[in-house]
Request: fold
Amino acid sequence: MKVDVNESIKSNTEKEVKEEAGLDVIADRVIAIQDRNKHNVPIYAYGICKVFVLCKLVGGSFAKNSETLESGYFSLDELPKLAEEKNTREQIAMCFRAAMDPQWKVLFD
Reply:
């Protein structure tokens, strides 16, 4: 997701989760800030800074839309095939670890 003009990372995250997943969340804390080209392939000719945000679910329900056809919850061992140019198994594992660790320290490149 790209951050829209006049949005913060927090407000944009909450807005995009609602638009794409139908869920109401509170963006609670930053997990990591990563240089996309250091963690994902293929390498892009331009730079992208990826911010991983831990969110608290407060309501809503999934509704199929133009960007998301279906939704589900998966354990780390049962992940579906990933679009690794967007998110890798290692990045998702990092998010699982952060969610379980109240003392998590933000990782950044």
The chain is about 25% helix and 25% strand. The helical segments are 9-21, 36-39, 89-100. The chain has a mean pLDDT of 95.
